[in-house]
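Final report, results section. Input specification for complex C-07:
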Amino acid sequence: MEFNFSEDQQLLQQAVRDFLAGECTPAAVRELWETETGRSKAFWSQLAEIGVPGLLVPEDHGGLGMDERDMVLVLEEAGRAALAEPVISTAAVGVPLLVELGESGQTEFAKKWLGRVAGGEALLAVGYEQSPFVADAHVADLLLLPQGKDLHAVERGDISVTAQPSNDQSQRLFSVDWSPSEKTCVAQGTEGAALQAAAFDRGVLACAAEQLGVGQQLIDMAALYTSQRQQFGVAIGTFQAVKHRLANAKVQVEYARAVVYRAAHSAATGSAQRSADVSMAKVMAGEAALFATKEALQVHGAIGYTYEQDLHVWMKRAWSLDLAFGSGAWHRARLADAIIDGQGPANAFGYCAPGN
Amino acid sequence: MDLTYTQEQENFRQEARQWLEANVPSEPLASFDTPEGFEAHRQWEHKLNSGGWAMVPWPMEYGGRGANLLEWLIFEEEYYRVGAPGRVNQNGIFLLGPTIMEYGSPEQKARFLPKMASSEEVWAQGWSEPNAGSDMANIQATAITDGDAYVINGQKTWASRGAYAHWLFGMFRTDPDSSRHHGLTFILVPLDTPGITVRPIEKINGKKAFAEVFFDNARVPLDNRLGDEGQGWSVAMATAGFERGLMLRSPSRFQNTARKLVELYRKTLAAGGFVDPSLRDRVTRCWVEAEAYTLNTYQTVSRLMAGDKIGAEASLNKIFWSELDIRMHEAALSLLGARGELRPGAPGAEGVDDWLDGFIFALAGPIYAGTNEIQRNIIAERILGMPRK
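Structure output:
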């Protein structure tokens, strides 16, 4: 039983944090917002150089061969920096789906794409049945889309997209018009459904990890602002009414953290409780991030409500992440079904599931 | 990161489970806030100790089992699984014990720890005074050196377990000219010392859970000082860290409550009674949050076992478990409906379990061990770096 991340994992997290602190500034994010795609090929190439898109690509396909326990730390940093690139679509969800497709017989197909993704030359987008939209469909070279239980792989030339502008300018959503055919089908029936479920759960985990980073960043921004802003002759951060709001937000973020890390472990090890564990992660981290938006906004006062101040860059991440890969409410319902109606997931490390 | 138990840990669990299943009293003991319940709980502690299970993480020489913190967590899971009695000496074993381990002289360790482990000596806390509650640095009770003894005068209050305990630990002002955090000393006081009067205080359920303690020229040997003279605040902060942080409320306590809550929900629904539709979500949240508390504790234990220390983050724990405990009991009382107010023993109280007592106990959580408002100040100032002034 070891909950700590290894030294290598901590170094990876620090490297990504340092890189994003330098390159993914709020000004850079806002600049991307003004572009047509909202995505930067140059920046993606830089991310590829430090290994982000290929993190989960096996080493013999040109990747780093890591697993969700590494990825979770990278995504936490992506959230902290409000990174607007398709890390979730491509690196956290698309790649492992391709790996699993390769393992289930689509060997050549997977090999061809995984190498290109690891090198930063190709982007992926993944659809899932809980949402009518596909994120990053406009820049994806390959889209993995559900059709009932079946899973299809469609190249960019074979689709047309309609933009669905989001409140979060970092989030690029699209309706995708495409035609499923025998040729596009890469997994059928129960196999296709299992692949879809695993991909969805990885998306849930990825959102939760970003939500952790977003929540922490909102608290840090608010703590800094209230330590500087003076009213009544003192920093407003000296007032308990202000302190306690941010302390409450901190409690929520910290109690989401271990839940998210455990979910990463469950995803990486193929635990039978994976779905419940990622749902718990998204419920806890999502609510923490949403709560942090409200407290951070309130203690900023009117300036936090302006477009000029950067707070909304993260607030919008918190809002859109809550809706991606199943809303918080959807996951609470899935958990209630498991805990109350079903046998329920076993307690963490515990001795008995409900009802035993 | 590897969240699986080793074979050795699984074996430890089996060993603990077998002993507990064979030895836990079949009937619940009377409350340890009654004279007969206090003695019954001491008897149970004596039994635990003779089985070597009283203080699992302590070194063997002091009456412990020499287990690590992870094994302690496993033991706690098994302890709550079988519904074993509450720990009457928790102030001693979970709070003072670790503090003596850190600050005590070899003589003090040998003198106090084994009798604490066996509950031959039960400990009360002596932090608060009438004018030193949340503002603990305002302590006014004095302990003035006179020959080989401290002469103690003043008053302590809200001394948990004070009504029946044998010893009290607390902070006293050894330098009468000092103020605030300075000039305080941590002293271990036998409550049968002449000059000490203990007056029990009933809590809202009428049970004598705590006491006020009056000191009138009570002489206590200088050897009963823990840590250096004038360093009481640092010693007390270590104790408070154990209290708010790891030891006092192990996660299995809340996992067990959450499990019972899920069962109560299912039972109530199956019985066809009215169930507020929001309760499904509330019960689910409680279960998830108990999981979150467990996971957080395992993470903390991993960190401590790797050599880290517990710091201000203990304040995060205290807020989380104390407020979760209330939410769980509120949900249960809502599920019980009209029977939720029945005292145990009422003819119609079958199946109400101990939710009402648990609720009343839970209400104290955000107050004791430093109010949650004080914890929020600590989080804001020491974790988030917000300004004190």
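DSSP finds eleven helices and eight strands in chain B. The two ends of chain B are 41 Å apart (CA to CA). This concludes the modelling results for the funded period.
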